[in-house]
Amino acid sequence: MKLIMRKQWPHIGALRTVAASLMVLALGAGAAQAQDGPEVRVGFTPKFLKDDFQTLMLDLSKKAFQAKGFTLLGAPDPNGDVAAQVDALQNLIANGATAIVFAPIDAAGIVPVIKQANDAHVLVFSIDDVPSGGKVTASIRADNVDAGAQAATEMVSRLKQGACWAEKRCTVLELQGALTTPNGLDRSKGFSQTLHSQAPDVKLIQRPTEWTADQAADATQNVLTQVPTLDGIFMASELMATAVNAQVGAAGRGAAVGAPGAIIRIAVDGTPQGLQLIRSHALDATISQPLNAYASKTADLIEWVSKGGKVDIGPRDDGQVVDTPVGPQYQLKATLVTAQNVDSPLLWANLVKK
């Protein structure tokens, strides 16, 4: 007997079910891929790893990138050498980085590698400072004009508690940073303009320091000799504070914060050393940079732009985005620190490992 085998075709309804299932799987896979976006490979270089600020910025950036699922190709330390920083970034681009992140050591010296990244369609993010050429996807830094303005507002608030205010004879010394740098220029602009606006009768003496403690000490000594009744000192950076305090003490004006005859002292940066000066009543206040937000905001922007987003100009809840010749600049708000909030866990200096 010959056995005849007949091919059994599945029911048409079953075919439709299988086809529908395959389509759902395909759509699901496509949706997951769209949600995840392309692989992001990041190359990072700090300026150096010799201070708490740069070291913590690297540590927080690594954690922020990891939380986003980015691949960190490397984070070499150029040790303050812009040529080494350029070489490191070039190597990271050659190794497949889709985004480079750096704190520029030199605004002009970093430009060649930025242009190389632009030609290779690699995203470019500059933290804490800005380059002088090329095109950045975004730069992320503190709103230093606002930092200076906050310092001036706090200075005026404290001057009002002294005798000089009622007699309209207050004098304030501003120890400027390097006015050739964006941070130095912006902090001075914010402080001086706000002080003149809120306290037009206050005499402002401005002295450049190029960010050096030695020049700050010399300027303080000279001004205290000429104006022994000096009422306040604004320092563009806490790097000057110890040297300035030494001169204030030598002039017999080293009283603790709030004591009769004390000179009001306010600075910018929010370093561990600066916060300790506040705790020891040797500094009235400082403006803490938003270092915590540098890392998280940079990671957010990398993710956003990698998925096709654009960094739009305009106000934000945490600051503002302004247009610059090299691209959008995200300016984050800084935080006023006094004895009342010096131990806040939200301040970057309190995150530094002891």
From TrEMBL:
Annotated signal peptide: 1-34
- Family the entry assigns: Belongs to the bacterial solute-binding protein 2 family.
Q: Which organism is it from?
A: Pseudomonas eucalypticola
The record's annotation in Pfam families points to: Peripla_BP_4 (PF13407)
What is the protein name stated in its UniProt record?
A: Sugar ABC transporter substrate-binding protein
Q: Where mainly located?
A: other
Say if the entry is tagged with keyword Flavoprotein: no
All residue ranges annotated as the Periplasmic binding protein domain in the record: 42-303
Any one Gene Ontology molecular-function term assigned to this protein's record = carbohydrate binding
Q: Does the keyword GTP-binding apply?
A: no
Q: Subcellular localization, per the record?
A: Cell envelope
GO BP, sorted A to Z: transmembrane transport
Q: Which UniProt keywords apply?
A: Signal
**InterPro entries for this protein:** Peripla_BP_I, SBP_2_dom
Q: Might you report a single GO cellular component term?
A: cell envelope
